[in-house]
Amino acid sequence: MPRKITSLTAASALSLLAAPAFAEDPRSTLPGAVAQVAPALAAYAEGALFDGEWAQAALAPRDRALVTFATLVTRHEADTLAVHAALALDAGVTPAELSETITQLAFYTGLGNATAAAQAIAPVFAERGIAPEDLPGATPGLLPLNEAAEAAREATVQGNFANVSPGVVANTREVLFLDLWRRPGLAPRDRSLVTVAALIAAGQPAQMTFHLNRAMDNGLTQEEAGAMLSHLAFYAGWPRVFSALPVAKQVFEARTP
Amino acid sequence: MPRKITSLTAASALSLLAAPAFAEDPRSTLPGAVAQVAPALAAYAEGALFDGEWAQAALAPRDRALVTFATLVTRHEADTLAVHAALALDAGVTPAELSETITQLAFYTGLGNATAAAQAIAPVFAERGIAPEDLPGATPGLLPLNEAAEAAREATVQGNFANVSPGVVANTREVLFLDLWRRPGLAPRDRSLVTVAALIAAGQPAQMTFHLNRAMDNGLTQEEAGAMLSHLAFYAGWPRVFSALPVAKQVFEARTP
Amino acid sequence: MPRKITSLTAASALSLLAAPAFAEDPRSTLPGAVAQVAPALAAYAEGALFDGEWAQAALAPRDRALVTFATLVTRHEADTLAVHAALALDAGVTPAELSETITQLAFYTGLGNATAAAQAIAPVFAERGIAPEDLPGATPGLLPLNEAAEAAREATVQGNFANVSPGVVANTREVLFLDLWRRPGLAPRDRSLVTVAALIAAGQPAQMTFHLNRAMDNGLTQEEAGAMLSHLAFYAGWPRVFSALPVAKQVFEARTP
Which chains are adjacent to chain B, needing at least 3 Cβ pairs under 8 Å? Predict the structure, then answer.
């Protein structure tokens, strides 16, 4: 971690001097006011979070940057999204993946979080020359459907809620599972990863069983899932993670032969 | 839906040319940055949400605008409240109803959400010449009380919590049920509607049984409630609605003879 | 409550004329737009909240200002934190206690809430001449550890989650319970108080049993806890408090001989 970058503007100025413009350094995300008002917190962030958690091998820095971004979108922390988007891009998340993450989280955390995220990171995309035509369009070729899994999901939701809200049942099928989840711009494992991160951050453990299983079906390892919980404790708060731990435990145990 | 209006400022400029200044068009609420950063999301919003969900007959556009506004107040999405207040007014929600919704949600989602909402929509009221004296005052004549229902509610809350927090028990009675809920500026059905929307958006399904029953006692139909769940999935996120669906199912079934 | 102060700027101007610059008056926290858009809410705030709840003897004004601040940090209501920090300082909360509250809530509600709080109140600290060297540093002498309680806590968490997320288990022990909770800049009773307030405000009643018991072990009385619930109903919304009441009831009853 070569140097501390304290703001997007400072980073932009430095970009005239040397590449890469944004060091892949989570330190770049901590506002200077923290050291003024809560020096102890600045020290904890430096030690336990940036030197500690971010450096643990159990989850790749690229994945950490992606789930952090997803968490902040979920929490509507628009003021820090630009610097975290820059961090994610420097850590290897592609512009297409950030764009798809925002689209995914529109459905899984509410449209307003996604529109605020789009507004917050538009300047980062503009500065890096990322144009709409570089991003996944509305109608890409779709990934193949796991028809058996989808039939089972649909049967459950139909059986439970067809008489409660036919609109939800239809939109869940047509918009989410036959379309959104099959978009190729974000790998299924990563789409699941940001969705589970969002459920943890939003305090929705009851909705996590289905999606954590799906994430692991899509390739997320138990070690990575455990490390994500440790990482998110810092960004979503310990209580959110302690509400998610029993669900993760149950999922892990049920998958163990 | 005659044309796309992308911002309040643009709408103001257009108001010199043609009335109505604000078309009743939910498209007006989507920031332009979405198409720049997440073109797929812009397409989903256009198709599934604006052409799809908003056009479903199961819930009136006026009700959709009102519950969307309530959801955004609950989520503290202050930056989009002005354009959604304008949309609601164009869709037939009265200034008095918006004012009462903010007051209701101060109690049901926290004072800070309501004060931020007041700050966000004050310019809309000013632009349209809506003055404080046009709005419901502090001490209107109150709607009659359903004394049997209130006695049952009070007995339950007293029995459970009189020794835990006498302050909550007293304020719930004096401020909320003997006063706030009896204010005539927002019809009981609509007061319940925005309250249920707020409970869904805030992830409080445990508090929903009482208020959804009250909403239906006050005239909300099962079809409208189901359509509201479908509508709110877009604005509060699918997981919030999936946590609310079992509660709605239970309420609907318990009311079916 | 000598006079109404409507903004930080107005208060600053008045400071040239008379001390104290900030009256200890919660009225100072209500934005003027409320009276414009929701006059009924302005009247409720004046009557039920400022004249009513804040004046109840069951919880000291200093404690009310502290838990209000904690609630607003938890809800990411950054725009009102400056005026509430000023109110808290005027009510007897020390700069060190505000600083430690922000650090505590970084862990219990997520880093971004704490960094936004630091940014929001940095001008208040600057205006009052509070410098980083006046605040608790990174490595103060620590309060003694209750070794039996810590051993029991660690055994439970290890037993439940060591195989789920070893990182969470380690950080919870090393960073939180062996370090953060032992920092002397915020008394254990107050550290627990802001933590319980945060759990209520964030809708995490499941995590409240441990922390409310800890708060009462640390000196919070049942009457104070009940009054805090009544106070927080206004700032976090009634439903959050009604989800917390059964947990408080259970804790109170289990502690009654």
Answer: A, C
Residue C102 contacts residue C117 (beta carbons within 8 Å): yes
State the span(s) of chain A assigned CATH 1.20.1290.10: 53-143+183-255
- Calculate mean pLDDT across residues C68-92: 97
What is the CATH code for B53-143+183-255?
Answer: 1.20.1290.10
First to last CA, chain A: 41
Output the pTM of the full model: 0.92
**CA distance, residue B141 to nearest chain A CA (Å):** 37
Predicted local confidence at residue A4, as pLDDT: 37
Distance from CA of A112 to the nearest CA of B (A): 7
Q: Does A63 touch chain C (CB under 8 A)?
A: no
State ipTM: 0.91
Average pLDDT along chain C: 92
Q: How far apart are CA A84 and CA B202, in angstroms?
A: 26
Percent of chain B at pLDDT above 90? 89
The rounded distance, in Å, linking the Cα atoms of C136 and C252 is: 34
C35 touches chain B (CB under 8 A): yes
Which chain B residue is nearest to residue A166, measuring alpha carbons? B226
> Rounded distance, CA B130 to CA B128, Å?
6
Give the tokens for residue C30: 């209500």
What band does A257 get if pLDDT is binned at 50, 70 and 90? confident
Task: Write down the pLDDT at residue C257.
Answer: 84
* DSSP class of C109: H
**Residue C230 contacts B, CB cutoff 8 Å:** yes
The pair of three-digit structure tokens given for residue C66, joined into one six-digit string: 């502290």
A102 contacts B38? CB cut-off 8 A: yes
Mean pLDDT of chain A: 92
Angle at C180 between CA A34 and CA C195, to 5 degrees: 85
Q: Which residues of A touch B236 (CB under 8 A)?
A: 110
